[in-house]
Amino acid sequence: MGVNGNEDLIADYLGEAHDYLEQLNTILMELADADGEWPEDRVNELFRSAHSLKGLSACFGFATTNTVTHHLESLLSKVREGRIDPSTEVVRTMFDAIDLLTNLTAEVAAGGQEGAASELVVDELMRHCNTAPEGGDAGAPALRRQAKAADKAKADPAEKSKMAMAEANETVRVRMERLDRMVNLTGELVVARSRFQLVTQLLRPLQRLDEMGLAWREALASLEDLQTMTQAKSIDTARLPVLVDRMTEQLQRFQASWQDVQGTGRVLRDLDDVAYDLDSVVGGIHEAVLQLRMVPLDSVFRRLQRVARDTAEALAKPLDFEVTGGDTQIDKRVADELVNPLVHMLRNSIDHGIETADMRRQHGKPERGQVRVRSYQRGSSVVIEIEDDGAGIDPERMVAKVVEMGLKTPEEAAAMSAREAQRQIFAPGFSTAAEVTEVSGRGMGMDIVLATIKSLRGSIELDSEVGRGTTFRIQLPPSMSILASLLIEVGDTMFALPLTEVREIVELNEGRVQTVERRPMVVVREQPMPLVQLPETYRFADGVLSQECEAASQHAIVFGHQGNEVALGVDRLVGKEDLVIKPLCAELTGVPGLAGMAIRGDGKVTLILDPSGFADFAMSRQRLAYAQRNAQPEPEPEPAPA
Fold it and tell me: Which one of 64, 367, 438, 634 has the fewest CB atoms closer than 10 angstroms to its CB?
């Protein structure tokens, strides 16, 4: 029946259900590698998690989950009693049950109801318990239809987008200490508000400044009249007393206002203190709110352990899988979006990277392959590395493949460096698989991974050595709502670049800028790279010349992946600032190279550049401009004077 329509109850159910499912998956992963020697205490924990989930689903009316957990509990009970050995087949059935429970929970998260077929899994659980239902194969046709439907759903990419959306539960569980910190900071904010209200009351006399100014101007006018009368040496004895009385009244008004205002100097100093405290409190609340969305990457890495085990088993490749840095914190939405790219990269590492045991022996390597996933903090960014000790990416093979697939002409492929050739794995539709399998070879791989990472404002670096292995290094911002930025100025326009994308800042002195084939290049660490300009790229003004841009630029910012960097000339480096990202307005949505916009404290709009998109757009504009320029003959030098 379920609790469809009651979002609060569903959220409560999902929070606990996810915890029990994580416990089931984690413990079973640990026990599956124990070669049948299952510690009694861990089996008891596994049993308790299944029992708790069964009771929870019964309370909330989710009948399918209740049925599956009931039979899973029965099987675990017999394993605990020693009546059933935890063979590979038994463990596989348990994993299938946990997968089904995960799908059922995802369906509840997406629509409040269960829908997945459970008969196949339940039948297997009951068979292992030696309590299969009577009736022989009466239900076999229906089970076969359900199995066929399940296989279709597993293979259909649309069914997989659907499942990913269902798994992206929009709730997050928060530890009490984080909530306590929020409550304490809110209390400090109330105190700061009270202090502001008090200071506002003390500053109300400043409203009399206009009155003081008027009295002062009137007194000056009266004084000018008196001076005129004195200079004329004809004092009007009748008018003089009136003039003096008027000046006296005006000065008394000024004095009264002055007495009210003169104490505000100390209040202004108090205002500075209150503003400083408020800034600290607001900064703390801002950080605390962001922390509410943060989750440890361990929640993602636990899924990878299962993927690594299943993939290695399917490919018959002995594998040691190691995970470190699971306590690194990242935004919940980023973590959800990361699952599919990391799963694909891990499968690729095992399928394409790790050799078979025979091949590893022939090359003097240990039979068991090594795959490591680790995460760590680098400045304000989160870095995730996937490293294998496999065959590596052969640049020569990549060159031949891109030509064979028509992705590059032979001339373009021959001009690529080894690193550029290796990065062709990110080209749309690229695949080196000889045949399509359940693991890889469908031609929809690393280009989608790269696009997903870019949508998270991240980047991927690739290091690979033939025969030694490959390392993918993903760099991500910890939060999707706040962007640590480098502010730059070009002309009168302010732009921002994600700090995570900035590789280096160089000064444009005379020896650093050179011209190669009439195109400007910057030499950085003895490596030439194209120098691009914002005015040229976006055509701020008609007829702008590259030489003028180069002369105005004082610095260049280097970004892009290693081996394919570009340098962006800027007039002024403004500094670092955290920006709240807003979507582009309709007029700018189609402009290449822009990632968003932000409104800064002064109320001005700052455009945020997408480094990779801008680099591609700038280079295409530059190539077109210089091709047109090269098509024109260079002017002949004027003859030297006789």
Answer: 634
